[in-house]
Write a structure and sequence with these properties.
Layout: H1 7-16, H2 21-24, E1 27-28, E2 47-55, E3 58-66, E4 72-80, H3 86-101
Antiparallel strand pairs: 1-2, 2-3, 3-4
Length: 106
């Protein structure tokens, strides 16, 4: 109950490990691990490298993303106590990622 992990802490951890061996262990969207099919409808120009987590009414993604212009981004999405099915939350995460990583001015 009191073992909390914040988005800020997760971000600092990922940033400090970006070029190290941790990066090599991350699943790749559309290719392997939990990211092989996790985000349906992900823009074909976006690649995610990260880890997922889920349990009843909890869905998480933490990792990196590369957009069509080869720009890299840190992406962390945590959802807790939501009232929809897990697949619907995955679709919402996909819409968020597609929106922010395909903006024209990136």
């Amino acid at each position: 109950r009191f073992n909390l992990l914040t988005i800020a802490t997760t971000g600092r951890l990922l940033q400090s490990r970006y070029s190290g061996p941790l990066y090599q262990t991350l699943a790749v969207s559309g290719e392997d691990g939990t990211l092989e099919t996790r985000f349906p409808g992900l823009n074909k120009n976006i690649k995610l490298y990260g880890k997922t987590g889920s349990m009843t009414h909890v869905r998480n993604y933490a990792g990196f993303a590369r957009n069509g212009r080869n720009a890299h981004f840190l992406v962390i999405l945590f959802a807790n106590n939501y009232a929809v099915k897990g697949a619907e939350m995955d679709e919402m995460f996909t819409r968020i990622i597609n929106h922010y990583l395909t903006l024209e001015d990136l």
